[in-house]
């Protein structure tokens, strides 16, 4: 049973797999099935959504009676994320956004977490070089559904935390190993970063301007598309399979293979000749004048993607050009000249003026928006595609949008390192003296600020 005081005092009835939220008669009764993990202290009902969401992954809001609110898709899933650089934190954030309870295990003696994708997570600081720290993590994994480990091959085994040990103690555990090169192969123990994995995937050789060296698109393809996101897919698939088998398994998420898999279209479309010209001279890699970017008179840019003839015709018309004076759309040898014609045309007006010409048409012309402008663009604004958190930071909303159980990311501040060490250890059954002993030995660390969960 949990209570909350203050305005509209009421109480929360907790039943197996269900939560009945009785708000005072002036409010409404909300019935929602959610999986509570432990008692929920709710000081004020205005915080109730945030507290219940953080604790259970259920999304509640005051609605008329009889509307049963659903859990988020991953409500009740308990995830342990070992602190890593960028891909694993992204994987953890995805799971947290969709309702999982993600506990990040940070190193001790670390002032600030480098995890910029920490929303919705808790932080426990454990020293895994100390046996008590390893013991605490093992106990956490026994009571969890998923482990995400971001280290190179062999590190977890050295700590006595390899799959053999942890799956022995918890056969239902989904043990996700997110690495650059995978758990086997000659590079398996080598250090690397996104660009290295992208290079080995083959995709980097396809990326860059004609005549230029290969160029990586930020660290998006291997770290995130082929790394964190692919690992989250693997975890979700393994959790789905576990419903039938009742068993967990190990996920070998290699960013080389994840990136290559994301790029399957490149491999699968070589036979139709889409990539048989040199880098930067094909339709989709910057070679075609109707698939690229152009500078406008105010120094901004527009993106042009008018591939199909019927859309290309609208592009030419919008630019005010006479098709009879232009070379054929697919005349490769004339593409440089065609690009010069388009460049001159686009340079004659501002980005906003071109939007007035092309918005609402099928010419496939859109403004190139800087990060600080995307959330105010009418299309993105009307959909709510970008969120502003409690600290005023704008970032993308979770994707995709599920109609009945959409993600509801936690918009409160990121956790401090070790902020939740004490409540998590208490959840694991450690008593006050045991916790103090862990803290005194340096095996665990509590952030000075009191936990807010
Ligand atoms: C974070 C920003 C973005 C980075 C993105 C970048 C482009 C990437 O591609 S990230 C993907 C990297 N690859 C992988 O994740 C694949 C799998 N992992 C690995 O291969 C390796 O982990 C590794 C190569 C990434 C790192 O190797 P390392 O030897 O360091 O570690 P491991 O071999 O894995 O072993 C881990 C050891 O740690 C021990 N451990 C783990 N947890 C604990 C614990 N809780 N307690 C105790 N010990 C623990 C474990 O036991 C292992 O020990 P052993 O080795 O003894 O076995 C970054 C972009 C720019 C960066 C900033 C910039 O560089 C400036 C600053 C530089 C400064 O030095 C740091 C701060 C910066 C601000 C820096 C911060 C960020 O890195 C960036 C912002």
From TrEMBL:
Biased composition annotated in UniProt, kind: Basic and acidic residues: 375-384
Catalytic activity: a (2S)-2-methylacyl-CoA = a (2R)-2-methylacyl-CoA; (25R)-3alpha,7alpha,12alpha-trihydroxy-5beta-cholestan-26-oyl-CoA = (25S)-3alpha,7alpha,12alpha-trihydroxy-5beta-cholestan-26-oyl-CoA; (2R,6)-dimethylheptanoyl-CoA = (2S,6)-dimethylheptanoyl-CoA
EC number: 5.1.99.4
Pathway(s) served: Lipid metabolism; bile acid biosynthesis
Source organism superkingdom: Eukaryota
This protein's UniProt keywords: Isomerase
Entry's Gene Ontology cellular component terms: mitochondrion
Protein name: Alpha-methylacyl-CoA racemase
Segments for region (Disordered): 375-417
Organism whose genome encodes this protein: Synaphobranchus kaupii (Kaup's arrowtooth eel)
GO biological process: bile acid metabolic process
């Amino acid at each position: 049973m949990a209570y909350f005081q203050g305005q509209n005092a009421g109480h929360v009835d907790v039943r197996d797999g269900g939560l009945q939220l009785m708000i005072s008669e002036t409010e409404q009764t909300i019935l929602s099935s959610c999986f509570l993990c432990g008692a929920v202290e709710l000081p004020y009902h205005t915080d109730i959504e945030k507290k219940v969401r953080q604790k259970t992954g259920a999304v509640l809001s005051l609605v008329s009676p009889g509307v049963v609110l659903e859990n988020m898709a991953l409500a009740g899933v308990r995830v342990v994320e070992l602190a890593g650089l960028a891909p694993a934190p992204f994987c953890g954030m995805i799971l947290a956004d969709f309702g999982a309870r993600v506990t990040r295990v940070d190193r001790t003696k670390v002032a600030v977490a480098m995890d910029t994708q920490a929303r919705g997570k808790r932080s426990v600081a454990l020293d895994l070089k100390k046996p008590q720290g390893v013991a605490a993590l093992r106990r956490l994994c026994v009571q969890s559904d998923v482990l995400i480990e971001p280290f190179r091959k062999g590190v977890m085994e050295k700590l006595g935390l390899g799959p053999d040990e942890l799956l022995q103690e918890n056969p239902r555990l989904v043990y996700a190993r997110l690495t650059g090169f995978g758990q086997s192969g000659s590079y398996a123990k080598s250090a690397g970063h996104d660009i290295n994995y992208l290079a080995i995937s083959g995709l980097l050789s396809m990326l860059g301007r004609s005549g230029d060296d290969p160029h990586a698109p930020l660290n998006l393809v291997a770290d995130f598309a082929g790394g964190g996101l692919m690992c989250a897919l693997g975890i979700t698939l393994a959790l789905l399979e576990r419903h039938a088998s009742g068993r967990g398994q190990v996920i070998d998420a290699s960013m080389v293979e994840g990136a290559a898999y994301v790029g399957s279209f490149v491999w699968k479309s070589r036979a139709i000749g889409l990539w048989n010209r040199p880098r930067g001279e094909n339709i989709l890699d910057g070679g075609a004048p109707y698939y690229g970017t152009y500078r406008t008179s105010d120094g901004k840019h527009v993106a042009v993607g008018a591939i199909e003839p019927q859309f290309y015709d609208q592009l030419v018309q919008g630019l005010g050009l006479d098709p009879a004076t232009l070379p054929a759309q697919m005349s490769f040898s004339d593409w440089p000249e065609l690009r010069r014609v388009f460049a001159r045309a686009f340079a004659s007006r501002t980005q906003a003026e071109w939007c007035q010409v092309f918005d609402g048409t099928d010419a496939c012309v859109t403004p190139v928006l800087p990060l600080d402008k995307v959330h105010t663009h009418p299309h993105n604004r009307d959909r709510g595609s970008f969120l502003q958190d409690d600290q005023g930071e704008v970032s993308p909303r979770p994707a995709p949008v599920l109609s009945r159980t959409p993600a509801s990311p936690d918009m409160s501040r990121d956790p401090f390192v070790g902020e939740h060490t004490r409540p998590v250890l208490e959840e694991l059954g450690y008593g006050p003296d045991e916790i103090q002993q862990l803290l005194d030995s340096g095996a665990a660390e509590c952030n000075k600020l009191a936990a807010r969960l």
